[in-house]
Amino acid sequence: MRRGAAFRCPSCGQGRLFRKYLKVQPCAACGNDNAAYPADDAPPYFTILLVGHLVIAPLLVFPFMWRMPPELVVGVSLPILTLITLAVLPVVKGAVVGLQWGLHGKRQPTAGA
């Protein structure tokens, strides 16, 4: 999971995991087909869970959230939450691909084995 969260191939840790923002690609270093591990709906679900519990819930504790005009709170917080969500999503997707590789992936034989 750590390799995937670092945007690296979960099999070898050398090749890049993503070709684009969230497009999984085969590993150029070891040839592992990382696209064979479908992440489906897990990354958005876990991202919403993390951002909701670790950012939004603590934010509601601060008194300024309740004293400021709602238009200002929404106007400032929505772009920030959008950026946080877009930053966390590829990390979570990489970790999910890494988890799937670890649970039931086809491990590539090492050289000399």
Q: Count the E strands.
A: 0
Percentage of helical residues?
40-55%
The low-confidence parts are none
**Whole-number count of domains:** 1
Describe the global form. elongated
Overall pLDDT: 88
Helix and strand content put the structural class at mainly alpha
Radius of gyration of CA atoms, rounded to a whole number: 18 Å
Strand content: under 5%
Order of helices and strands: HHHH
How large is the count of helical segments? 4
What's the story with the biggest beta sheet? none
Q: What this model shows, in words?
A:
With 113 residues, the protein is mainly alpha-helical. The protein has one domain (2-104). Helices cover 54% and strands 0% of the residues. The protein has 4 helices and no strands. It has helices spanning 2-5, 42-59, 64-67, 70-104. The longest helix is centred in the C-terminal third of the chain and has 35 residues, at 70-104. The model has no long low-confidence stretch (mean pLDDT 88).
